[in-house]
C-alpha cells in the first residue's frame, strides 16, 4: 500500500500553474520574526519536544535558576518542587494532562522591575554576557518554560518573589506576548506571606513534613522566589523523569536540599517511550531519599556552598573574528576614543601592558591607535596574532568544581554501592575557555551486576538526561579501557557491571551541542581530560577489586576449612575419645587466624587499614564494607545449617546459621548484625561517611582512603 | 617404612595383628588431636606412591618404597577435604576392627558416605575418592589392606594338584569343574592354609580365556601343576597366593603372557613388584618368576601367519622403550633382545594367536616344549 503510494508520488504530476512570486510580492510577506515566535514553532530546540520532556524541562529550568541564584547570593539552597495534577479525573489512556509545576527557592528573590523581563522575555538574563560558571547561560530557560505553558494551556505564570527580608512579597501573574517578546501582566499585588501557605496543606505528606519543620518553613525563606507554570505535560517515573533529574541534581549538588511533591497520579501506561528507548542504558534505581506519604526529601549532604567563582574576561585565543569586531565596536561605544592598547588589556585576560604593545606592533599600528579606527583587515591580523601568541592560559578561579569530597558525598547519598572513587582534574583550556573535568564511580553494593554501566553526566552541576551517545563524556567512557580495571567491556561499548560512572564538566561556557543543553560537544581537549579522570577512578577501582578478590578467596578458604572441621572433630572423638568441642574450637581458631585476610580492610597498597571511621580524613575513595555484595561467596558455598557436634558446638557455628538465613558476604569484613537491606548499622555508617567526606576543603588533591 | 610391612606377614595371630593396626590408627588420630589443641597445623604423613619414591633393590630383585612422604594438611585448600576423608576412614576402620568384620572397597565408600554436617556436600564424591584415601591410609599406617579389614573383589582363578583350607572349608583344587577356584583377595595363612600339594610348578596365564583352554585340556593333571589366572594384571590376592606357593611350597612360577608391552609389564609386576604397591613388594614379588612366552621370535619359530599380527601403535612403542629402561631389565641381555625383537617385528601377538596352528597347540606343544627345553626368560 505504502509502496504503491510512493510510486505514484514519484511520478511527475501536472501542477496547476500559479502566477510566480516576484520580489515585490515577496517583500510584502517579509517581516521581522520575533524570537519568541521562532521558538514557539521550534520548541524541540529548547527541550519541549513532547509532554513528558516538557514537564522535565520546566522543572529543570526553574531548579537551575534557583540553584544559580542561591549560590550567587551565598545561600545554602532549599528548594521545593511541587507538581500538582489538575485533571485527576482524566481517562487512564490520556497521552498528556494538565499540571501545575511550582518551584520555590530561598534565593535572593527578584526586584519588582525585573520580573517582566526575566519571565516574559526570551534571551533576557544576567548570565549570557559574562564568562562565569553558572548553570544557566543563555537567558532563555524560564521564559521558554512559561511560554510553553501559555501555548498549551493559555494560563499565565504565577510568580511570588521576596527580594528583601521583612518586606512584602510580590505576587505577579504574567503572560508572554510571543509577537512582541514582552510580558503582559494580568495581576500584580503585594502580599505578606512567603512561601505561599497553601502548598504546606497540599497533601497529607506535605502537612506532616511541614509540621516537622521540613517543608517551606517561613523562617528558612527570608527571601526567595516561587514560580508556577501550568502546562500540558505527562508525569512518569523512570529514565528522563523529574525524579531522575532531582536524584542526579542532588548528587551533583550535595550542598542543596530538595523536597519533591509528585502529583497524585502517575501515568502508568508504559507505552513505548521515545525518550526511554533513545536513552538505553542501565536504570540503576538509587536514591537515599526519605519518603513520607509520597513526599520525597533529598537531604543536604554537605554544609558548605561551592566556592564563589570569579567572572573572567575572554582569553584572546578563545574568541572568533566576528566577536573581536563586535568587541571593538562595543569598546568604542563605551569608551569613546579608547585606545587599542587599553582595549587589549581591559577586555581580555592574560594580556599585560607589554603584550598589548607588542601586539600593536605586530599588526603595524601604534599603541595610541583608537580601537574604533581598527579596520577589519587589521582586526583579522590581530586575530592571527592572538592565535600565534604565547599567552598564559586563562585563570581558573572562575571555576567551581564539585570537588572530590563533595562528589563522594553526593554519590554516597544517591547510589547504594560498596565502593566509591572520585577524582578532580586540574583546570584545562579549550578554545581559550577554562574548564575542569571531574569523575566519580560507584561500584557494587545494590547496583545491578549484569547490566551496562550507568553513566550520569553533568555540566556545571546540571544533570544531562538526554542524547547520551552524542555526548563527549559518553565517548570518553567508551574509549576508556575498563578491562584494565577488572571490569568486562564488550568492544566499543560501555563497561558491564554494577557500576555508576559520573562525569562533570565545569566551565565558564559549556559547549553544548544544542540550545536544549543535553550533550557536551566533542572537543579533543575535553574528551582527553575526561578519559584521564576516568582512568584515575578506574585505577582505584581496579586496585580495590583485586583486593576484594583476595579477601573473597580467603573467605572461601575459611569456608572450606570450617566445613570439614566438624567432621574431623567427630572422627577424632570416635578414635581417641578426645572432646570434639575442644578440638572443633581449637581448629576453628586456627582456621580464622590462617584466613585473617578475609577480615581485613586494605588500602590501595594492600596495607591493612584501621576500621575507625571517625579517623578518616583522606579523600578520593570510600568503601562501605557492609555493602560488599557476596556474589562469589554466595555462589560457591552451599547454605549452611547449624552444625551439630552432638549438640555441643552450636555456639561456634552461629555464622553458618546466619548464612543460611541470609547469604551475606563471607568476605564482608564487618558483618551486619541485621539482615535488612539497609541495616541501622549501615545507615549510621553512611551518615558518618558522609560527614567524613563532607569535612575539610573542597576539591583538594585526592588521596585514597578505605575504611 | 618398608620394614614395617613384613611385620604383618609374620604376625602370628589375627588378634595380635588387629591390635597392632588399631594402635596405629589411634597414634595417627592422637597426633592430629594434639596438634589441633596445641594450635599447630594438623597433618598426616603419606608416603609417596610414585616412581620418584620407588627404589630398585638389586640384591633382593624387588621394587621398594623410599622414604619420601607428603604431608597432608588440613589448612590447604586442595587437601582439606582429603584430610577430612582420611580421618573419616580411619575411624571407620577402627569400627571394623572392633566389630571383627571386613568390607569391600565399595562397602568402605558407603560406610564413610554422608552429608558433611551443615552443608549439602557429600563426604565422598565417588568411590574413586574413597579408594585413593584407603590406599594412602595403607601406606600412612604401614598396614596392609587386609589388616585394615578391607578386601578387593575376587579376580583370579586356580585349579591344580593342591588341596587348601579356605576359612575352615577344605577345597580340593583338582575338582573345580570348568570354573575353577576363585582366589579371594585375602589369602593370608589365617584365611588360606595349604593342606596337601602334589604339584611341581605353577603356570600362571594372563587371561581367563587362555586359562579355560588349559583347564579343558586338563593340562594341570597331565603336567602335575597348578594353573592360575589373574585377569590381566593380577590383583594382590593372586600375587600373594603365587608368592606363598613359591615361597612356602617351593614351586617355580612360569608366566604365559601376551607378546606386547602390557604382557612384559605384568611379568615385571609379578616378578619385582609395582610402583603403587612398592611397599608390599616383600610379600608380593616373586623374583624367581619366569617368562615362558609368547616371545617375539615365536612368529617365525612357530610358523605363524600375518593374520595374528596386531600392529604396535605409538603408545606401545613408547611403553616398550620405557620397560626396556627399567633398571631390572636394563642390564638384562635376554630382555633387551626380547623387547628389541618386539619393536623390530612391529607387531604384538596374543597367546591366543597360537590357536591358528591348532586348538590345543599351546597346551600340547608350545608350553610342554618350552618347559622341557627350559626355554624361558628370567
Ligand atoms: N529563582 C530566581 N531567583 C533569582 N533570579 C532569577 C531566578 N530565576 C531567574 N533569575 C534571573 O533571571 C535571569 C533569566 O533566567 P533564564 O532562565 O531565562 O536565563 P538564564 O538562566 O540566564 O539562562 P538559560 O537560558 O541558560 O537558563 C537569570 O539570568 C537570573 O538573573
Ligand atoms: Mg536559567
Task: Provide a compact summary of the structure.
The complex is a heterodimer of chains A (707) and B (378). Chain A has 707 residues and is of the alpha+beta class.
What can you tell me about this protein's structure?
The complex is a heterodimer of chains A (707) and B (378). Chain A has 20 helices and 16 strands. Chain A is α+β, with helices and mostly antiparallel strands. Chain A has 3 domains: 39-298, Histidine kinase-like ATPase, C-terminal domain (Heat Shock Protein 90, 2-Layer Sandwich); 316-388, Helicase, Ruva Protein, domain 3 (Orthogonal Bundle), CATH 1.10.8; 415-638 and 675-707, Ribosomal Protein S5, domain 2 (2-Layer Sandwich), CATH 3.30.230. Chain A has a 9-stranded mixed beta sheet. In chain A, strands 10, 11, 12, 13, 14, 15 and 16 form a 7-stranded mixed beta sheet that branches. In chain A, a hairpin with a 6-residue loop joins strand 3 and strand 4. The termini of chain A are far apart. Residues 1-13, 269-288, 602-618, 629-685 and 690-707 of chain A have low confidence and may be disordered. Chain B is an alpha/beta fold and 378 residues long. Chain B has 2 domains: 2-40 and 74-151, Orthogonal Bundle (Arc Repressor Mutant, subunit A); 157-373, 3-Layer(aba) Sandwich (Dna Topoisomerase Vi A Subunit, Chain: A, domain 2), CATH 3.40.1360.10. Chain B has a 6-stranded mixed beta sheet with strand order 10-7-13-12-14-15, with helices on both faces. In chain B, strands 9-8-11 form a 3-stranded antiparallel beta sheet, with no helix packed on it. In chain B, helix 2 packs antiparallel against helix 3. Chain B starts with a helix and ends in a 5-residue tail after the last helix. The A-B interface holds A 557, 560-561, 563-568, 570-572, 574-576, 578, 582-583, 586-587, 589-591, 594, 638-645, 653, 656 and B 25-26, 29-30, 32-33, 36-37, 39, 41-42, 74-75, 77, 80-81, 83-84, 87-88, 90-91, 94-95, 116-121, 123. Bound molecules: adenosine-5'-triphosphate and magnesium ion. The site of magnesium ion has 6 residues of chain A, from helix 4 and helix 6.
Amino acid at each position: 500500500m505504502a509502496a504503491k503510494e510512493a510510486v505514484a508520488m514519484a511520478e511527475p504530476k501536472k501542477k496547476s500553474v500559479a502566477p510566480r512570486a516576484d520580489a515585490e510580492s515577496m517583500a510584502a510577506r517579509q517581516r521581522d520574526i520575533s524570537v519568541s515566535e521562532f521558538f514557539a514553532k521550534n520548541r524541540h530546540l529548547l527541550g519541549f519536544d513532547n509532554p513528558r520532556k516538557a514537564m522535565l524541562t520546566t522543572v529543570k529550568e526553574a531548579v537551575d535558576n534557583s540553584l544559580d541564584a542561591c549560590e550567587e547570593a551565598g545561600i545554602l539552597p532549599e528548594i521545593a518542587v511541587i507538581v500538582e495534577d489538575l485533571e485527576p479525573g482524566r481517562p487512564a489512556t490520556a497521552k498528556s494532562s494538565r499540571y501545575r509545576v511550582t518551584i520555590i527557592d530561598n534565593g535572593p528573590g527578584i526586584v519588582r522591575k525585573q520580573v517582566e523581563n526575566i519571565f516574559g522575555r526570551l534571551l533576557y538574563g544576567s548570565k549570557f554576557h559574562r564568562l562565569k560558571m553558572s548553570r544557566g547561560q543563555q537567558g532563555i530557560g524560564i521564559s521558554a518554560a512559561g511560554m510553553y505553558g501559555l501555548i498549551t494551556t493559555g494560563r499565565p505564570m504565577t510568580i511570588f518573589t521576596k527580594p528583601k527580608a521583612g518586606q512584602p512579597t510580590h505576587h505577579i501573574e504574567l503572560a508572554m506576548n510571543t509577537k512582541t517578546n514582552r510580558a503582559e501582566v494580568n495581576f500584580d499585588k503585594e502580599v505578606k506571606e512567603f512561601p505561599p501557605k497553601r502548598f504546606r496543606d497540599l497533601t497529607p505528606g506535605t502537612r506532616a513534613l511541614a509540621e516537622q519543620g521540613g517543608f517551606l518553613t517561613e523562617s528558612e525563606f527570608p527571601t526567595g522566589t516561587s514560580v508556577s507554570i501550568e502546562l500540558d505535560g505527562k508525569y512518569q517515573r523512570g529514565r528522563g523523569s523529574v525524579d531522575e533529574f532531582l536524584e542526579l541534581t542532588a548528587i551533583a549538588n550535595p550542598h542543596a536540599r530538595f523536597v519533591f511533591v509528585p502529583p497524585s497520579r502517575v501515568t502508568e501506561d508504559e507505552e513505548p517511550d521515545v525518550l526511554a528507548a533513545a536513552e538505553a542504558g542501565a536504570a540503576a534505581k538509587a536514591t537515599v531519599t526519605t519518603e513520607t506519604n509520597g513526599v520525597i526529601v533529598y537531604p543536604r549532604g554537605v554544609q558548605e556552598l561551592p566556592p564563589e567563582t570569579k567572572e573572567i574576561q575572554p582569553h584572546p585565543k578563545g574568541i572568533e573574528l566576528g566577536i573581536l569586531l563586535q568587541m571593538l565596536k562595543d569598546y568604542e561605544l563605551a569608551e569613546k576614543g579608547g585606545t587599542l592598547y587599553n582595549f587589549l588589556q581591559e577586555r581580555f585576560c592574560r594580556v599585560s601592558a607589554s603584550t598589548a604593545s607588542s601586539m600593536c606592533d605586530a599588526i603595524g599600528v601604534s599603541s595610541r591607535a583608537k580601537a574604533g579606527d581598527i579596520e577589519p583587515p587589521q582586526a583579522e591580523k590581530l586575530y592571527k596574532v592572538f592565535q600565534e601568541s604565547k599567552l598564559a592560559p586563562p585563570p581558573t578561579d572562575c571555576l567551581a568544581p564539585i570537588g572530590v569530597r563533595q562528589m563522594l558525598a553526593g554519590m554516597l547519598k544517591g547510589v547504594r554501592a560498596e565502593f566509591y572513587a572520585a577524582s578532580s582534574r586540574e583546570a584545562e583550556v579549550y578554545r581559550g575557555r577554562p574548564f575542569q573535568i571531574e569523575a566519580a564511580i560507584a561500584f557494587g553494593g545494590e547496583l545491578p551486576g549484569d547490566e551496562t554501566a550507568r553513566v550520569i553526566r553533568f555540566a556545571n552541576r546540571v544533570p544531562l538526561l538526554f542524547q547520551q551517545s552524542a555526548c563527549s563524556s559518553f565517548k570518553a567512557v567508551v574509549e576508556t579501557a575498563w578491562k584494565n580495571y577488572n571490569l568486562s567491556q564488550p568492544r566499543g561499548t560501555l563497561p558491564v557491571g554494577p557500576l555508576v560512572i559520573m562525569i562533570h564538566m565545569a566551565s565558564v561556557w559549556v559547549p553544548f551541542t544544542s540550545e536544549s543543553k543535553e550533550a557536551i560537544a566533542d572537543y579533543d581537549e575535553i574528551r582527553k581530560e575526561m578519559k584521564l579522570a576516568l582512568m584515575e577512578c578506574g585505577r582505584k577501582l581496579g586496585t580495590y577489586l583485586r583486593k576484594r578478590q583476595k579477601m573473597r578467596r580467603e573467605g572461601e578458604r575459611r569456608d572450606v576449612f570450617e566445613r570439614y572441621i566438624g567432621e574431623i572433630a567427630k572422627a577424632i572423638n570416635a578414635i581417641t575419645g578426645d572432646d570434639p568441642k575442644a578440638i572443633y574450637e581449637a581448629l576453628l581458631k586456627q582456621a580464622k587466624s590462617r584466613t585473617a585476610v578475609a577480615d581485613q580492610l586494605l588500602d590501595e597498597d594492600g596495607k591493612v587499614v584501621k576500621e575507625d571511621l571517625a579517623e578518616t580524613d583522606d579523600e578520593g575513595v570510600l568503601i562501605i564494607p557492609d555493602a560488599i555484595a557476596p556474589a562469589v561467596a554466595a555462589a560457591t558455598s552451599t547454605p549452611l545449617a547449624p552444625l551439630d557436634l552432638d549438640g555441643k558446638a552450636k555456639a561456634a557455628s552461629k555464622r553458618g546459621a546466619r548464612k543460611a538465613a541470609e547469604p551475606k558476604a563471607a568476605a564482608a569484613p564487618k558483618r551486619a548484625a541485621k539482615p535488612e537491606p539497609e541495616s541501622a548499622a549501615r545507615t549510621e555508617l553512611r551518615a558518618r561517611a558522609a560527614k567524613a567526606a563532607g569535612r575539610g576543603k573542597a576539591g583538594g588533591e585526592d588521596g585514597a582512603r578505605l575504611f | 617404612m618398608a620394614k614395617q610391612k613384613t611385620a604383618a606377614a609374620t604376625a602370628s595371630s589375627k588378634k595380635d595383628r588387629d591390635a597392632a593396626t588399631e594402635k596405629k590408627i589411634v597414634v595417627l588420630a592422637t597426633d592430629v588431636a594434639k596438634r589441633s589443641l596445641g594450635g599447630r597445623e594438623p597433618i598426616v604423613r603419606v608416603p609417596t606412591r610414585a616412581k620418584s619414591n620407588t627404589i630398585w633393590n638389586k640384591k633382593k630383585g624387588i621394587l621398594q618404597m623410599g622414604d619420601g612422604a607428603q604431608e597432608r594438611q588440613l589448612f590447604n585448600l586442595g587437601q582439606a577435604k582429603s584430610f577430612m576423608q582420611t580421618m573419616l576412614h580411619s575411624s571407620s576402620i577402627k569400627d571394623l576392627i572392633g566389630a571383627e568384620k571386613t568390607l569391600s572397597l565399595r562397602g568402605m565408600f558407603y560406610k564413610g558416605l554422608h552429608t558433611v554436617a551443615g552443608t549439602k556436600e557429600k563426604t565422598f564424591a565417588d568411590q574413586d575418592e574413597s579408594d585413593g584415601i584407603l590406599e594412602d591410609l595403607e601406606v600412612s599406617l604401614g598396614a596392609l589392606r587386609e589388616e585394615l579389614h578391607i578386601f578387593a573383589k575376587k579376580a583370579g582363578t586356580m585349579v591344580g594338584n593342591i588341596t587348601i583350607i579356605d576359612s575352615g572349608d577344605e577345597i580340593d583344587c583338582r575338582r573345580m569343574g570348568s570354573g575353577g577356584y576363585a582366589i579371594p583377595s585375602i589369602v593370608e595363612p589365617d584365611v588360606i592354609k595349604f593342606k596337601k600339594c602334589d604339584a611341581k610348578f605353577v603356570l600362571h596365564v594372563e587371561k581367563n580365556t587362555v586359562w579355560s583352554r588349559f583347564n579343558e585340556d586338563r593340562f594341570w593333571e597331565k603336567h602335575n601343576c597348578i594353573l592360575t589366572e589373574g585377569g590381566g594384571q593380577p590383583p594382590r590376592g593372586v600375587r600373594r597366593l603365587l608368592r606363598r606357593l613359591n615361597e612356602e611350597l617351593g614351586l617355580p612360577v612360569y608366566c604365559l603372557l601376551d607378546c606386547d608391552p602390557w604382557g612384559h609389564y605384568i611379568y615385571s609386576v609379578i616378578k619385582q613388584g609395582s610402583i603403587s604397591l612398592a611397599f608390599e613388594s616383600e610379600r608380593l614379588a616373586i623374583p624367581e618368576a619366569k617368562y615362558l612366552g609368547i616371545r617375539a621370535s615365536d612368529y617365525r619359530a612357530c610358523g605363524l601367519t600375518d593374520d595374528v599380527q596386531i600392529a604396535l601403535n605409538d603408545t606401545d612403542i613408547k611403553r616398550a622403550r620405557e620397560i626396556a629402561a627399567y633398571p631390572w631389565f636394563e642390564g638384562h641381555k635376554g630382555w633387551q633382545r626380547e623387547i628389541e625383537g618386539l619393536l623390530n617385528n612391529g607387531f604384538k601377538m596374543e597367546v591366543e594367536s597360537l590357536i591358528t596352528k591348532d586348538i590345543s597347540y599351546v597346551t600340547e606343544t608350545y608350553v610342554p616344549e618350552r618347559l622341557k627345553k627350559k626355554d624361558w626368560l628370567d
